[in-house]
């Protein structure tokens, strides 16, 4: 069976502005995940918070355009990154696809100071602890003042090959509750939508 990975955009109807780029193998499911995240505050990601703050609704105010497709996950992510940079999506998309290891599966990077004395769990963590913006943290990374280190993967989707550095990523990708993640940690694997998620 052949699978396709679709690249989609959120575009504000009134202005034509593209505010989000994503990729997925299952368009309908992904749209439903976005709509669910709009309804439930604890699932909201920056794009959903942006939509709320600007009183925008998916479908009604923001159209979803499928703009490209690929026959492999890697090519899909490359295309997603291309559109991400084409439309200069910076503040609302959390992750450039070039920095991701799977569909909606960002690789978390710990940051270490140049002298190796200070550690930060993420750009957000560094921004909070240093009292600066995340874009300022990104500039420190570019200048070599902070050095990124990949956090080892802890979980894998056996069917798709996607790997995750934290239970948080699994939880938010598949819209799971905390009990399910606890079960994953206790039993070593769970079944989600017919797919096996396993500790590695």
From TrEMBL:
A Pfam family that the UniProt record links to this protein: GIY-YIG
Organism whose genome encodes this protein: Levilactobacillus namurensis
Superkingdom: Bacteria
Domain GIY-YIG: 3-94
Protein name, as recorded: GIY-YIG nuclease family protein
Annotated InterPro entries: GIY-YIG_endonuc (IPR000305), GIY-YIG_endonuc_sf (IPR035901)
């Amino acid at each position: 069976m052949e699978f396709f990975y679709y690249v989609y955009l959120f575009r504000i109807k009134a202005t034509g502005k593209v505010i989000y780029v994503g990729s997925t193998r299952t368009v309908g499911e992904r749209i439903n995940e976005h709509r669910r995240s709009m309804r439930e505050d604890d699932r909201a990601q920056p794009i959903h918070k942006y939509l709320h703050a600007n009183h925008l609704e998916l479908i009604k105010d923001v159209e979803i355009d499928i703009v490209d497709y690929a026959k492999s996950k890697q090519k899909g992510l490359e295309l997603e990154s291309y559109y991400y940079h084409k439309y200069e999506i910076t503040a609302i998309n959390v992750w450039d696809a070039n920095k991701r290891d799977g569909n909606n599966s960002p690789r978390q990077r710990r940051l270490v100071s140049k002298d190796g004395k200070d550690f930060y769990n993420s750009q957000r963590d560094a921004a909070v602890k240093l009292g600066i913006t995340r874009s300022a943290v990104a500039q420190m990374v570019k200048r070599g003042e902070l050095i990124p280190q990949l956090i080892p993967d802890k979980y894998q989707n056996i069917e798709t090959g996607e790997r995750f550095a934290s239970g948080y990523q699994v939880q938010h990708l598949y819209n799971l509750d905390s009990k399910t993640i606890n079960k994953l940690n206790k039993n070593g694997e769970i079944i989600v939508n017919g797919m096996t998620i396993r500790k590695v």
